[in-house]
């Protein structure tokens, strides 16, 4: 589990007064402002963020330290990261995708099935995409109490009881 | 134009047979189907179908609010990962 989570990216400048075009990756796009100040990938530079208006494909925003159009142009491609501890805590049985990705998945017998590659939701239940050493392709595992009875974020492991025919 | 009511919902017959067999056996298994056009019926609630998307079978846990939709709606044919960011998953 990484300490920094990518929550947005700068896609260019907006106007001539030093505003930037911002793409938000958050579940509720406006929430990116609540995680300010954000940092770069290395976590060395910190940027305060203020959304000014909604525009096509994102937001116009003011980024700390970016005052001119030239600086905004230079910031294009910059990915913005929030620290994991900035995200609000969640109720039981609710997890951030960022916390689940990378966890090891074991069956009830203790055999390693694989590792969580991504979390998906196509409208039914959430699905864990599992990539394992003995698997030709990834396997999708429904993220339900019956099929995934244990999620241990401290030890970084998930215990699953997959239905027949999945693995 | 919507489907005539007198015809009833469309379901491929093999889907009905497989669902009935799975329910009778009581085993916890994924029912693999290729029929994306079949309507989700009330008797499918609680079962897990593996709906083919042209590449693999996507597990779909049928719940009550899915009744009347088609299986294909829950098994997208294109892959898009996006960013995890602050997105949440809930165990139900």
TrEMBL record, chain A:
All copies of domain RimM N-terminal, residue ranges: 6-86
Location of this chain's protein in the cell: Cytoplasm
UniProt key word Chaperone: yes
InterPro entries assigned to the protein according to its UniProt record, in alphabetical order: PRC_barrel-like_sf, PRC_RimM, RimM, RimM_N, RimM_N_sf, Transl_B-barrel_sf
Keywords: Chaperone, Cytoplasm, Ribosome biogenesis, rRNA processing
Ribosome maturation factor RimM PRC barrel domain segment(s): 98-166
Pfam family name, one: PRC_RimM
Domain remarks: The PRC barrel domain binds ribosomal protein uS19.
HAMAP family to which the protein is assigned, alphabetical: Ribosome_mat_RimM
Family to which the UniProt record says this protein belongs: Belongs to the RimM family.
Function of the protein: An accessory protein needed during the final step in the assembly of 30S ribosomal subunit, possibly for assembly of the head region. Essential for efficient processing of 16S rRNA. May be needed both before and after RbfA during the maturation of 16S rRNA. It has affinity for free ribosomal 30S subunits but not for 70S ribosomes.
Subunit and partners: Binds ribosomal protein uS19.
Database matches in PANTHER family: RIBOSOME MATURATION FACTOR RIMM
UniProt name for this protein: Ribosome maturation factor RimM
Lineage: Bacteria, Pseudomonadati, Pseudomonadota, Alphaproteobacteria, Rhodobacterales
From TrEMBL, chain B:
InterPro entries reported in the protein's UniProt record: Ribosomal_uS19, Ribosomal_uS19_bac-type, Ribosomal_uS19_CS, Ribosomal_uS19_SF
UniProt keywords, alphabetically: Ribonucleoprotein, Ribosomal protein, RNA-binding, rRNA-binding
SUPFAM superfamilies according to UniProt: Ribosomal protein S19
Matches recorded under Gene3D superfamilies: 30s Ribosomal Protein S19, Chain A
Record-level GO cellular component terms: ribosome
UniProt keyword annotation of Thylakoid present: no
Pfam families: Ribosomal_S19
Function: Protein S19 forms a complex with S13 that binds strongly to the 16S ribosomal RNA.
Family that this chain belongs to: Belongs to the universal ribosomal protein uS19 family.
Protein name (Swiss-Prot/TrEMBL): Small ribosomal subunit protein uS19
């Amino acid at each position: 589990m990484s300490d920094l989570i990518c929550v947005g990216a700068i896609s260019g400048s907006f106007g001539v007064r030093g505003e930037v075009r911002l793409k938000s990756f958050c579940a509720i796009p406006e929430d990116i402002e609540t995680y300010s100040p954000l940092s770069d990938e290395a976590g060395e530079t910190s940027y305060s963020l203020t959304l000014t208006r909604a525009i096509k494909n994102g937001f116009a925003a003011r980024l700390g330290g970016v005052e001119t159009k030239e600086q905004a142009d230079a910031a294009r491609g910059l990915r913005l990261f929030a620290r994991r501890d900035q995200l609000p805590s969640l109720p039981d049985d609710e997890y951030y995708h960022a916390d689940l990705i990378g966890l090891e998945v074991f069956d009830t017998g203790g055999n390693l099935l694989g590792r969580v590659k991504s979390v998906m939701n196509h409208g039914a239940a959430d699905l864990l995409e599992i990539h394992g050493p003995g698997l030709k392709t990834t396997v999708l595992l429904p993220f339900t109490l019956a099929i995934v009875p244990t999620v241990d974020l401290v030890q970084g492991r998930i215990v699953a009881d997959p239905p027949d025919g999945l693995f | 134009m919507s489907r005539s009511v007198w015809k009833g919902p469309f379901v491929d017959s093999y889907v009905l047979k497989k669902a009935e067999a799975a329910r009778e056996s009581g085993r916890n298994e994924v029912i693999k189907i290729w029929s994306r056009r079949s309507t989700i019926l009330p008797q499918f609630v609680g079962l897990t179908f593996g709906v083919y998307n042209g590449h693999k079978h996507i597990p779909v846990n049928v719940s009550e609010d899915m009744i009347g939709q088609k299986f294909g709606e829950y098994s997208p044919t294109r892959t898009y990962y996006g960013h995890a960011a602050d997105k949440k998953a809930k165990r139900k």
